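Worked example

This section walks through a single chain of length 222. The input is the sequence exactly as stored; nothing has been trimmed or padded.
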Amino acid sequence: MVTNLENNDEVWLNKKKVQDRPTYFFVKRLTDMIFSLLGILLLSPVFIVLSLLIRNDGSHGKAFYVQERVGKDGTHFKMYKFRSMIPDADKHLDELMDQNEVDGAMFKMKDDPRITKVGKFIRKYSLDELPQLFNVLQGDMSLVGPRPPIPSEVAEYTDYDKQRLLVKPGCTGLWQATVRNNTDFNGMVKLDIEYIQKSTFLFDIKIMFETVKVMIKPNTAY
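Given that input, the structure is written out below as tokens.
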């Protein structure tokens, strides 16, 4: 999937044009409900196996991790993931901020010492994201959309960056299915805005297929 990150011109979206598409969002929501429910049912054995692996990874923590995230129009919700870090990982974030490998309002560190051995594996294949199917079923997220940021990141957003919040966040998106960690925060924002600008039902399907390919043959996920 080809994207254009070289164009430095800022794109400003029309909120009404983006959000006033009842047919598209109806089909998108219906698709989200059907596929998230099917995914939960079909992947239930995987959920059980991963839960057991995480519970017995030696870090003495729960299988699931719940974190406050920011969704459409700045609303907050609880996002679910399989735990890939030590139980008190959030308390150690400030100690690692000077080793952040991504410029902008997000934190990424390839060799993050907080990540467990099981966590490294499930992150590589994006398996830690599977519980977000419950978020999709609940309506907090969509299958495809910008990744939901944490409140402290949004506090650093410019008005341009906040355009990411015009639509529901997604389990996957244009950023995850293409360059992933090969770009910085500004590059991610450009891809999210490009997705919102081009979003159609067929484009969503294309991104989901690309995501499956990335899960089978991982890109730069960590």
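What to look for: The first strand starts at residue 64 and ends at 70.
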